[in-house]
Amino acid sequence: MNDKALATAAIERVAGHRRRFDARFEAYFDALADDLGAPPFSRFTPRCLELLRDLSLRGGKRLRVALMYEAARLVTTEDVPGLEEAALSLELLQTHGLVHDDIIDDAPVRRGGASTYYAYLQEFPDRDRTALGLAVLAGDLAAFLSLRVLLEAKAPAELRQALLEVQTRAATDTVVGQVVDLERDFEPLPGEDLLHTVTEYKSTRYSILAPLRLGLLAAGEDLARHDEPLRRYAIPVGVLGQMRDDYLDLFGDESVVGKPSGSDIRAGRRSYAVSAVLAATTGPERAVVERALGDPDCAPETVDRIRDIARRRGVEDRLRSAMRHHAEAASAAAAEWRPFWREEAVAFFEHLPLWGMERTL
């Protein structure tokens, strides 16, 4: 197969994993409604589950799920125990992150619909603290469910424990990542190393490394033996993914991204894109950017102006070049897996970053 055919095959595999998982995720929430054990009088608990279900099933690329299943395929094409529950755990943890992200960012929209926090604000317009509390608890519930589903997995006890350890560590790293993500924005102009470190904790460890580790564990592989090769792949993939999100926030199509352009600017986030714009501007242009940073009422016209400034200063092209560099680094890292894993599965990981890069352009 040529590169284009291999990339197409990778896309089709991701889509297939997504279709199968979405059906399983829906069934999980159907069963959970009867299994949670809430008191019969409670009206808030079913509503909490309804909002978690809605957010969980409303879009999402399911790339973590695809990475996990394909990681298992590095070792075997046979069905292995624990994978289904690990996939549910990954996406429940993602739901937790989305709910809490939207509280932190005061974001009204997620995946083309109301965020969980704003859904509660609409239901309790005169009780802001109730809405906030319920949104926090909804996110917490998703996090605990992500661990519970592993404890109840139909797999040997030793494997359940190993899967739980990986996911618990990933969840802890993600919370630390959220903390340092907020800390990053106190830096006037964070350097590249700081941005990369925040990305590693906030997303790489749970979005890339954890799925790889869970899939390999379930397939019976020794993680300690392969830790360094996995990291050499995961770190550039994680940077690519975060850089792509930041790029799309400034340069992307709102109808595709699913949220308004310029949300990082309005929130005052020193993202890869915003930091690149700050580094590239001086004088009046820099003043335009700095005045807009952290202004929740920043007008779309101002975001458009910043976008134009960024393009004139070459920021868009530099971000694209950086993303391609990280995609190629990840692809080269995956190619080194051939001596010890299946060729077909290695090819998937080799071409996936390049496909992710092309989706941005």
Automatic annotation (TrEMBL):
It comes from Streptomyces triculaminicus. It holds the Pfam family polyprenyl_synt. Belongs to the FPP/GGPP synthase family. GO terms for molecular function: metal ion binding; prenyltransferase activity. PANTHER family: FARNESYL DIPHOSPHATE SYNTHASE (PTHR43281:SF1). Keywords: Isoprene biosynthesis, Magnesium, Metal-binding, Transferase. One of its GO terms (biological process) is isoprenoid biosynthetic process. The keyword tRNA-binding does not apply. Gene3D superfamilies: Farnesyl Diphosphate Synthase. This is Polyprenyl synthetase family protein. Its cofactor is Mg(2+). InterPro entries: Isoprenoid_synthase_dom_sf, Polyprenyl_synt, Polyprenyl_synt_CS.
